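User: Here's a chain of 345 residues. Predict its fold as tokens.
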Amino acid sequence: MNFSAKQIAELVEGEVVGNPDVEISNVSKIEEGKPGTISFLSNTKYTKYIYDTEASVVIVNNDFIPDEPVKCTLIKVEDAYSSVAKLMRMYTEMMPKKTGIEQPSFISESATVGDFAYVGAFAYIGDNVTIGDNVSIYPNTYIGDNVTIGDNCTLYAGVKIYKDCKVGNNCILHAGAVVGSDGFGFAPNQNNEFDKIPQLGNVVIEDNCEIGANTTIDRATMGSTLIQQGVKLDNLVQVAHNVVFGKNTVMAALSGVAGSSKIGENCMFGGHTAVAGHLTVANRTNVAGISGVSGNVKKEGTVIKGSAAFDLRSFNRSYVNFKRLPEMAEELKSLKEEIKKLKGE
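Assistant: Prediction complete.
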């Protein structure tokens, strides 16, 4: 399907600079632009590519002023990145969706599946499951007994949702995600062996959440592990039992949160971060990648970095000295020798 620059500008409320009738039918990265595609420029380090790109249309921020002539048509908008995201969402929504129930698959007689659903081959839907409208369940997915899934959800291939868990509306669970596996609960006995503590709770995922591929969210020992509205978890994230994620918090890949920790709202965690158990992290906390949070974060809006993580400004000042440690060690050695010599005199 082709769109003109003028049509796209109307969709994103932008201004066309150049040929409004040029048409595009696909997307491309600005450094790999091809005729008939649309790209965008939001990061200034990619500015050099706009002068040579073969993309027919490029979306840029309103404040972009080229230093030399450009071949492509520009669409100026308030926020180029957000505008491209909007276009991509529109494009995705226009794509045809699968519907119907493929065979072989198993759906319990006591389960309820909403209208316009898609259930892929080899899917299993257990007893007393309730599934909303417009839900897509891809092949090899397992949905345990008493699970509830809201409207407009997508469960990609191999998702596993254990019994009694709840998923809200407009959620996406990527391939291999596991929701409701047992929390890591064991008690040492007199023989120095570990007895399993039954995990009797569940997992509740609220509306508009996205769970990455091969991410695991453990069920609570009692009560619920809670993923509140708008949370986005990347691939390969581990969420332990009884953890709470506040609204609109995001966590990048290879991160983990230990049991019973409470993460605030609108927090951001970089990749490969870790949060120790039974901690509280305040709203709007930002944790840089490869950091370890070992204590409570009480002040909202805190930015931390390091392992164990501490205040960002303090870390940056300390890091200057970290890099000079070998040189400082040599200086210290020389000073000790000089002091020893002075004492001898």
